[in-house]
Amino acid sequence: MPIETLPEPAAELPTPELLSEISDGLRRLKDAVRRLPWRQREVFVLREYGGLSYEDLACTLGVRPGTIMSRLNRARRAVAAAVEEEGHE
What we know:
Blueprint: H1 16-34, H2 38-48, H3 54-61, H4 65-87
Helix pairs in contact: 1-4, 2-4, 3-4
């Protein structure tokens, strides 16, 4: 096989420090989502992890799209604030 057809080598493996940072960030995110009020948590998880559209969320949960937007906005702000706050401790 000619060398020109070989794939590029993979990027360097992440350092243990970087893996630790990533793990810590994921833990903070999970904790922040877990602390959300139930209705905000269900909208956040279905949208961010499930990929449901606002219309699908409204239909699935039996609420208006405006309610979905409101809950999702509150959830996103609460998660961001909690992750940031815990990161400064």
